[in-house]
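Thread: "does anyone have the structure for this chain?"

Original post by V.I.:
We have the sequence but no experimental structure in hand. Need at least a predicted one for the grant figures.
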Amino acid sequence: MKCKFLVLHKFWVITLSAMCLGGVTKAHPHVFVDARTGFIFGSDQQLETIKISWRYDEFTTLVLFETLELDQDQDGQLNDADRVKILEGETNWPKGYKGDIYLEVLGQDYPLGRPKAAAVMLNANQIEVSFDLPLSQPVRVDSTPIFLRLYDPFFYFAYTIVSAKASPELPEDCEAQIVLFEPTAAESVIQDKLAALGREDRLEIENAGRLFSDEVQLTCG
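Reply from O.Q.:
Generated one for you, tokens below.
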């Protein structure tokens, strides 16, 4: 199995594990992300692009500053060189990597393109990365929901989808609803077992992050 932590979007997690999490620790998840989503429709009322932002927790932000040697002038701000370093790892994805972003149309995984119009900022001392993700082909949305989910299959990263402060206007007859994950008793047991794993323990549950993912349901008409 290809190592998850060699994927560019997660390249600095090795350092997090090796330098900052000494001793026995709970391993799943380690990194927490507040995610925001939006949808861009074309003039023909077809869905063309998804807007994504990732806001990392404060501890992960500190690790990222250390790993990438950011803010060398120590003014508490990101300069252009800092932004280039961050975006290289966060949006320059290798072939086959999906960025932990999954769009489901009619029960099938819908292919997406690569990040465009990427930007990075400090938001309340937390790194936030945003970008547009075009669909491989525009798709018409009707009363059958399209599902957007953000999750790490290995459940090392935990994404919580939160309401966007400002997002593109949806067509008048469209609605995007965030459905937060609420575990059943059985799923809570699985979560407890995963949390008890040491960081060197192998995760035996395939596509574990999908089990616990929030989702956005998009409908039109």
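V.I.: this helps a lot. Confidence is low (pLDDT under 50) at residues 1-26.
O.Q.: and The longest helix spans residues 80-91.
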